[in-house]
Each structure stands twice: as structure tokens, then as C-alpha cells.
Design goal:
Blueprint (H helix, E strand, L loop, with lengths): L2 H4 L8 E6 L17 E6 L1 H9 L5 E5 L10 E11 L6 E5 L8 E4 L5 H14 L4 E4 L11 E5 L2 H4 L7 E4 H9 L3 E9 L5 H16 L1 H8 L7 H11 E4 L2 H16 L13
Helix pairs in contact: 3-5, 7-8
């Protein structure tokens, strides 16, 4: 990233900010679209890391697994996050066999963290290494014994031919008794994001305060029943990267290292 992009506010350039396009990110970006110092770009989680790698955004709400990849040198720039402490509603494995019997898992390409989480849960809870395959949506139920879906599509595109559902937030809670962090705001280490961090915290606080209104405003357009959207944003998700969330995140990294999903040492900086 060039020097002009390192500190956009210094020369009047807007911060180019990449955020998740799902309902779960709306409380984190409340009001930012009206901030002249912010240029907001929405995309699915797996693409945001690519945008940040390519310098197309200055900071992004990235899947946490991407923090620890060997070719990246990122820092966490805010105490805002997308996390859960139990059931998520929107990170689920749908299967036609019992969870402990799953051998092959077709996965939603929108996610990086949830794929790693499923891999870890099946190894740790069931002693089984899954064969991970891409899911395009065109496969038949006979071809897929289990499918991992994430995001808003879980609510309106439930796989009715699969009788068993495993919520990965609940499974992680059973495994560790800790919250799980799916995404955090990150930027390259050389970026001075102190001003941006203040903006992100203020937006998060405003969004959490108005979460029910956000659910009513955005839920229907994303095919969420309003009552369910309100419960999702106010009861199921957490948006503050507090001490227990950090413990959960570090536990995830420990298990990811154990199973060879990330490099042995992760040395990203935390705000």
C-alpha cells in the first residue's frame, strides 16, 4: 500500500472500508455510509481479505482465519467484531446423516473461518477428518451428505431435504465453553488506523443501540422475518471484542495450528 493510502485522512482521502454484506454486519457500520471520510464497499467475507490484500480497501471486516495466514502482515484495528456465545442461526451444517457420521462436507465458498471451524469441530468433537468439497448449489442430496452454509441464505434457503442441522456456534460452545469470533476489522500493520478505530467504535455502539431498528429496516430486504432478525442481532450475536471473545479467538487459533490450518506461529498485532 502506498503512503497516500496509509493514512487517508491526512490528505483528505476517504478511508476505503470493506464490510460484510450480510445482516450481521449492519450494526457495525451504522451511519458510516453517510460519513464523508468513509468510502464503504460491501462484499461476502471471503472476498474482503482479497480486497485488502490487493490494496483495494484500506481496512476490512475480515474472517479471523485470514489474520494468521503466512503471506499477510495485518493488525486488528478495532474492538468491534462479529461473534457469538452459543447458537449463531446463520452458520450451520445441514446433513442427511448424524453429525458424528459425516465424512464429506460440501462448503459455502463465501466463508473462510466457518470452513476451518467445521474442520476443527469434527476433528475435536467426533475424531473425524472431513473431506472438504466446494458446494455450488447444483448438487443433489444424493451427492452431498452434508452442506455448510453461512449468512443470510441460511434463513431463506434452508436445505429441506436434510433432516439434521448442526449450528457451529453451539458446537464450539460445547467444545470450549467460549464465545467464537468470526470476523474483525483489520488493516496492514503500516497503516495508522487510530482515527478509523474511533469511527468504528462509535458506529458499533450506535448500531448495537439501534439493533432492533436495523433488523426491521434491513431484515425484509435480506429475506429475514423481522422478529427473527431482531432476535438474531440482539440475542445471538456479539459485537465487542472483549476478554472472553479474545480467549475464544486464541483458542481457535491454537486448534487451527494443531491441525495444520494456519502457520505454527501467528504474530498479527492486536489493537
Amino acid at each position: 500500500m502506498n503512503k497516500r493510502c496509509e493514512t487517508p485522512a491526512k490528505d483528505g482521502q476517504a478511508w476505503r472500508l470493506g464490510a460484510v454484506s450480510f445482516l450481521n454486519a449492519k450494526p457495525l457500520i451504522a451511519g458510516l455510509e453517510a460519513d464523508p471520510a468513509i468510502a464503504l464497499r460491501l462484499d461476502v467475507p471471503s472476498n474482503l481479505a482479497i480486497l485488502l490484500d490487493g490494496g483495494q480497501v484500506d481496512a476490512a471486516l475480515v474472517p479471523v482465519i485470514d489474520l494468521a495466514q503466512a503471506h499477510r502482515n495485518w493488525q486488528i484495528v478495532s474492538d468491534s467484531c462479529i461473534a457469538c456465545d452459543g447458537e449463531t442461526l446463520t452458520v450451520r451444517v445441514f446433513s442427511r446423516v448424524a453429525a458424528q457420521a459425516i465424512r464429506r462436507l460440501h462448503v459455502d465458498g463465501d466463508s473462510h473461518t466457518s470452513i476451518a471451524l467445521a474442520d476443527i469441530i469434527w476433528r475435536e468433537l467426533y475424531g473425524r477428518q472431513l473431506e472438504i468439497l466446494p458446494f455450488t448449489g447444483s448438487e443433489t442430496v444424493e451427492q452431498c451428505e452434508a452442506v455448510l452454509l453461512i449468512g443470510d441464505k441460511v434463513v431463506h434457503n434452508t436445505l429441506i431435504d436434510y433432516e439434521i442441522e448442526t449450528d457451529l456456534g453451539s458446537a464450539w460452545k460445547s467444545l470450549t465453553s467460549l464465545p467464537f469470533v468470526f470476523a474483525v476489522w483489520a488493516a496492514p500493520r503500516e497503516v495508522d488506523a487510530s482515527v478509523l478505530a474511533i469511527k468504528l467504535t462509535r458506529a458499533r455502539d450506535a448500531g448495537v443501540e439501534s439493533a432492533e431498528l436495523i433488523a426491521a429496516d434491513y431484515g425484509p430486504g435480506l429475506n429475514w422475518p423481522v422478529t427473527l432478525a431482531k432476535r438474531y442481532l440482539t440475542k445471538r450475536l456479539r459485537f465487542v471484542l472483549g476478554p472472553r471473545e479474545r480467549l475464544g479467538m486464541n483458542r481457535f487459533f491454537d486448534l487451527a495450528r494443531k491441525h495444520g490450518l494456519i502457520r505454527p506461529q501467528s504474530d498479527f498485532a492486536a489493537a
